[in-house]
Structure formats: C-alpha cells, structure tokens
Write a structure and sequence with these properties.
single chain, 247 residues, alpha/beta, 26% strand, binds fe (ii) ion
Length: 247
C-alpha cells in the first residue's frame, strides 16, 4: 500500500513502507504539463507505485523520470515506466546518462549539466551536481524552483514509518539511522570528502522551502540551516579515520 500526500503545490509524495527494512521509500510525482516522477522506484514496487500514480494522473502521461544516482530504489523500475509511458525519458546527471543509463535503459536519457534547468510547464528543475553525495560519482539533486523544493534523494535518510512532512528536527533521526547502519552491512552509507561541506553549503544557498527526502519525513522547517547542520552530522559519522575495517 502506498500513502499519498501533497507536500508542496503539485508535488505528491508517494510513500511505500517496507516493514522488513523499517524504511519508507518515497517517490515524488509532480503534476505539470510535462509530469515528472522523481525516483522510479524498485522493479518489485512498480505495480504498487503505478497504481498510486494512477490516482493522480494517467501513468502513461509521465514525461520525465528523474533520479539522483544509479541504484535500485532510484531507477530500478525505469524501463517499466518507459514501457508504459511512450513519451517518457529519464533525466539525470550527464555522468549517470553516460556511464549507466545509456546501456541500462531502453531509451536514451537526458543528461543535465551542473545548473542546467529543465522546464516542464509551470515548474522548472535546476540540476545540481553532488558527486559522491549521498553516494555514487553520478549523484545529483534537483531543485524545483517555483516551489523551492529540493528533491534531495537519500540526504536526511530516516528510518521508520514516519509522518509525510514535518517542520520538527529530522537530523536527530537521520543521525540515529546512520549510526545504526554503521553497525551492519550498510555501513559507510555516504562518504565524507573534502568536497562535502562545499556541496552542502551550495545546496543551503538555494534556500529551499521543502526538502523532499527519499527515506523518512520531508521537511519544511529551516532547510538552509538543516543542510548546513547535515555537514556536521556527516563529518561526525563518516569523516573519521577508519580504525576497524582492515584490522
Ligand atoms: Fe542511494
Ligand atoms: Fe535511497
């Protein structure tokens, strides 16, 4: 079952909670002349997601399928969407288009350069390159300019079946989730590199009104500050010298 909520004008969060992982997978459908689905989702989730999208628009009308980086929850079902939506195209970083989607997808993707803008009617998406943030050399995020919504993928990942959107702190829950992951096979969720503070400061400068997160609650508090504070949390958890892995 998917839960649908409008987190900003025209921006619908379609959330599927997987109890086995204690994790929400959130996909964002943005209604427009050229509708965008941000996060194609996993192949195994496609039937559920298709039914949920169908409550908002005919799925065959999807024009753009955006995502941050090549991973199954970001774009696993890309080809399923491309098959049912004849006008649809993937839109992602130039790197993702070049090194992943070119071979993976049944139709060519549009690779956006850093600061490249895609207009879809009422809405416009500014693509921001964020290599290795949250992970993957092809990573990027999209900033929907009319609603000031940052489609920020795995940034601020929180566990649990949480509320769709909040203005209360989400960084505490993010920190807890990352510390939990550090104990298991999903450790080192994101690298902390010399570029991380600059990339996060760049995102903070966009002054988003809403952070549309893939896992956990979206956020509509002080997004600028949250992005700056995220740097501190990531530095604390991922910025340490490795001491255990190669003992
Ligand atoms: Fe990811
Ligand atoms: Fe994810």
């Amino acid at each position: 079952m998917a839960a649908i909520s409008e987190i900003a004008p025209d921006i619908y969060r379609i959330s599927v909670f997987v109890p086995e992982f204690n994790l929400q997978f959130n996909h964002f459908l943005i209604k427009d002349e050229e509708p965008m689905l941000f996060h194609a989702g996993m192949r195994m989730m496609f039937p559920v997601l298709k039914e949920a999208v169908g409550k908002l628009i005919p799925p065959s009308q999807i024009r753009w399928i955006g995502f941050s980086h090549f991973e199954m929850d970001e774009c696993g079902a890309l080809n399923e969407w491309l098959q049912i939506a004849p006008q649809a195209q993937a839109v992602c970083s130039e790197a993702a288009a070049m090194v992943n989607i070119e071979d993976f997808a049944i139709r060519p993707a549009v690779g956006l350069p850093h600061e490249g803008v895609l207009k879809t009617g009422q809405h416009a998406y500014r693509f921001i390159k964020t290599p290795h943030l949250p992970h993957g050399w092809d990573a990027g995020v999209m900033f929907e300019e009319t609603t000031k919504t940052l489609l920020c993928s795995d940034l601020f990942h929180q566990n649990g079946n949480v509320v769709s959107i909040t203005d209360k702190d989400i960084l505490g829950a993010h920190r807890e989730a990352m510390l939990e992951d550090q104990k298991g096979p999903l450790m080192d969720y994101a690298p902390y590199t010399l570029k991380t503070p600059k990339i996060l400061a760049n995102l903070a400068n966009l002054q988003p009104k809403t952070l549309a997160t893939m896992h956990g609650s979206s956020y509509n508090g002080d997004c600028r500050q949250a992005l700056l504070d995220l740097n501190e949390v990531m530095k604390e958890i991922f910025g340490k010298e490795e001491t255990s892995l190669w003992k």
